Amino acid sequence: EAAVTQSPRNKVTVTGGNVTLSCRQTNSHNYMYWYRQDTGHGLRLIHYSYGAGNLQIGDVPDGYKATRTTQEDFFLLLELASPSQTSLYFCASRGQGMDTQYFGPGTRLLVL
Amino acid sequence: GDSVTQTEGQVALSEEDFLTIHCNYSASGYPALFWYVQYPGEGPQFLFRASRDKEKGSSRGFEATYDKGTTSFHLRKASVQESDSAVYYCALGTQVVGQLTFGRGTRLQVYA
């Protein structure tokens, strides 16, 4: 099974703060995804990537940037954090020719 | 756009009860359908999938059958255990785009 790790696991910041969430997968998967999970909304796609240097916009991209520096690493950036971005963030990956995504353990972000 | 509707809120059962969580989808084309399970403090885990009409997916005693006619993929288990308590997500995916669209999740609470 795919190994996906996320850091930090918990983060507290203030409104207007700058936050970077990190995700690493070690199974040579081409595709990586960032989701947010909120009560009543389930999982919603923020950004995703087909490979290093590639970035695609998901369903709820406003206020977020992302960067895929290598095949293994995918970062989510909140440059001016707002309380509405308080959420549980998940990273996922999947391999070429597969349709199953594998998720990391999540990062809980609190914006005060 | 694509969407998934599943049993809302929480389902409360006693051990050995029969479980059904309803999942209906709306999508163009012929999507793959998935069930994921999420335990407290963890990311969603892939449970099983199906990709064609009348195909049954199954894992850990859970099963669902792809029904293109009724656009459904209902999750069933004959006899639930307390350890099955978790949040269950139905999702659909299209290979070309590579995204998953999730339902809002259904919390299963099983009492001993």
Give an overview in words.
The complex is a heterodimer of chains A (112) and B (112). In chain A, strand 7 and strand 8 (73-78) form a beta hairpin. Chain A is mostly beta strands. Chain A has no helices and eleven strands. The model of chain A has no long low-confidence stretch (mean pLDDT 93). In chain A, strands 2, 4, 5, 6, 9, 10 and 11 form a seven-stranded mixed β-sheet that branches. In chain A, strands 1-3-8-7 form a four-stranded antiparallel β-sheet, with no helix packed on it. In chain B, 0% of the residues lie in helices and 51% in strands. In chain B, the strands form three sheets. In chain B, strands 2, 5, 6, 10, 11 and 12 form a six-stranded mixed β-sheet that branches. In chain B, strands 3-9-8-7 form a four-stranded antiparallel β-sheet, with no helix packed on it. The radius of gyration of chain B is 13 Å and the shape is globular. The relative contact order of chain B is 0.34.
Pattern of helices and strands of chain B: EEEEEEEEEEEE
Determine the structural class of chain A based on helices, strands and strand pairing: mainly beta
Overall number of strands of chain B: 12
Oligomer category: heterodimer
Instruction: Flag low-confidence runs of chain B.
Output: none
